[in-house]
Specification:
By secondary structure, the protein is mainly α. It contains 22 helices and no strands. The radius of gyration is 30 Å and the shape is globular.
Length: 501
């Protein structure tokens, strides 16, 4: 394959420059109050903008009808950006952020003739809102498609190992932000895992996972938004063919393709990188589940507290993994038998590790409830984890049996699960569990029990008969019974309230 066409090179350079712009933006603003950084940010954006729009993205006809008056807007934009360097008034720093954004959108819209409405009409500003806040997100997949197209072109052109190395590096690059989020959650969930990470200071140094994730998110969002906003100024509609004097096959392909498909080598590298972290974490969870984690804890750490913390973080990781699983099932291009085997095995390992995390989270939440009591939220989380575990088992079956309809199974399981949760009688179980905890520990939160519905009344009546000395219990029972008596019309008859009476 020969050299890339000028328009194709320009598209790809535009993506790279947008990413660099996002990287610069997070460096300018994350962890640092706005100052001279605003001037640098505005200047950098206009550098990206003018590079992207010159000559219609690489050699096409120059745009006509650009309003010369739009250049005058540089004066208020410059002066407002300069205020962040000169002054520190909090109110105006806040207001100037929105004013700068509005002026830049207005100027770039007029410069590119993206609006057919006169700038002095009210409808023009309604269109500005659409161009700035809605339209960019219609092009959110374009930079990723450009990236995969680039790799596909390399593969067709050479077929050498160089292309494979590029795909592997891309997989590692894509996995990096997910790993930052996942590792930070796992480190928060498990003190042993955190201590193992802390024991490799040469690799981590003073790096903060939370700070790193936030910086990546800010940089990626700004870079992606800037690219999609400028792209939206150039191309009128994400589904229409670009109107240019020269043929534009790649732009047409961007809109013709219905979805993004990842190369199996890139996706395999991504899944393997994620699974390596999960396998290490799961090894720790097995030691925790079988009681061996006590000897692995860092000095001064209590096993009881270790065992009770982290269930929320583990559930979050499980939800992330469900998203990765869906991508792995539907967004990886099918090629050779070896690639398919790697994909299926990687997804199976991902599901297996996620199930172990759910078991660990379930156990931790149970210990947490023993220490602090049972609530509706905690009981519902128990049910949700069981539901999620069933969905994961169904997904594992789908991985190895392609014709199995996962959608039908998910719908059926979801309906059954929702009906079961209705008939579990949650409030009654909460009361029962808290009463059982009282019998074991002598601790009970009567105030919380008073917030339950009359479903809990039978259990509370039994507790009052057995332990009339519990302070506040009599008032709680009377309150529930009074609530039941207030619904005395036949239309409001309810078994739960009848039992409470």
């Amino acid at each position: 394959m020969g050299d890339l066409a000028p328009w194709q090179k320009r598209y790809e350079k535009m993506v790279v420059l947008a990413l660099l712009f996002g990287l610069l933006s997070q460096y300018l603003f994350v962890g640092a109050p706005a100052g001279i950084s605003v001037m640098v940010f505005v200047a950098s954006f206009y550098g990206l903008f003018f590079y992207s729009v010159q000559g219609r993205l690489g050699g096409f006809e120059k745009w006509q009808g650009q309003a010369s008056s739009s250049w005058l807007l540089f004066i208020p934009i410059f002066l407002l950006a300069l205020t962040y360097t000169l002054y520190a008034n909090i109110l105006f720093r806040f207001l100037n952020f929105f004013a700068l954004f509005a002026l830049i959108v207005a100027q770039t819209t007029v410069m590119t003739s993206s609006s057919t409405k006169p700038w002095y009409r009210g409808v023009f500003y309604i269109e500005l809102l659409f161009l700035a806040l809605v339209k960019p997100f219609a092009f959110i997949g374009v930079p990723f498609i450009l990236l995969t197209d680039r790799l596909r072109n390399k593969e067709k052109g050479s077929g050498t190992g160089r292309s494979k190395v590029g795909k592997i590096l891309l997989g590692l690059l894509i996995s990096a932000p997910i790993l930052i989020v996942v590792i930070s959650l796992l480190a928060s969930a498990d003190e042993i895992f955190l201590s193992w990470l802390s024991s490799i200071p040469n690799l981590l140094g003073d790096f903060s996972f939370g700070d790193g994730f936030w910086r990546f998110f800010v940089g990626a969002f700004i870079g992606c938004y800037a690219f999609c906003y400028i792209w939206g100024l150039i191309f009128k509609n994400p589904k229409e063919q670009v109107s240019v004097s020269a043929p534009d096959p790649q732009a047409s392909a961007l809109y013709a393709r219905g979805r993004i498909e990842f190369d199996p080598l890139t996706a395999g590298t991504f899944l393997i990188a994620i699974n390596l972290v999960y396998v290490l974490f799961v090894a720790i969870q097995f030691s925790y589940l079988f009681g061996a984690a006590n000897g692995l804890l860092p000095e001064g750490a209590a096993y009881a507290e270790y065992a009770r913390r982290g269930f929320a973080e583990l559930v979050m990781v499980a939800l992330i993994n469900v998203g990765l699983l869906m991508c792995g099932l539907h967004l990886i291009r099918r090629t050779s038998a070896v690639a398919e085997w790697v994909r299926k095995l990687s997804l199976t390992v991902l599901i297996s590790c996620t199930i172990v995390m759910l078991v660990s989270a379930y156990s931790r939440l149970s210990l947490y409830e023993e220490a602090y009591g049972f609530t509706q939220t905690r009981l519902l989380v128990h049910g949700f984890m069981l539901y999620l575990g069933v969905l994961l088992l169904i997904a594992m079956l789908r991985i190895w049996k392609e014709r199995f309809s996962m959608g039908k199974a998910y719908i059926c399981v979801s309906v059954i699960a929702f009906i079961l949760m209705n008939y579990v009688n949650v409030d009654a179980r909460i009361a029962e569990k808290n009463i059982g905890r009282f019998e074991r520990t002598g601790n009970i939160d009567v105030g919380y029990l008073g917030m339950l519905s009359t479903d809990a009344a039978p259990q509370l009546l039994k507790l009052r008969e057995k332990h009339p000395e519990i302070k506040g219990l009599h008032e709680v029972v009377e309150l529930l019974q009074q609530h039941a008596r207030n619904h005395d019309k036949w239309q409001s008859w309810n078994l739960s309230m009848q039992r409470a009476k």
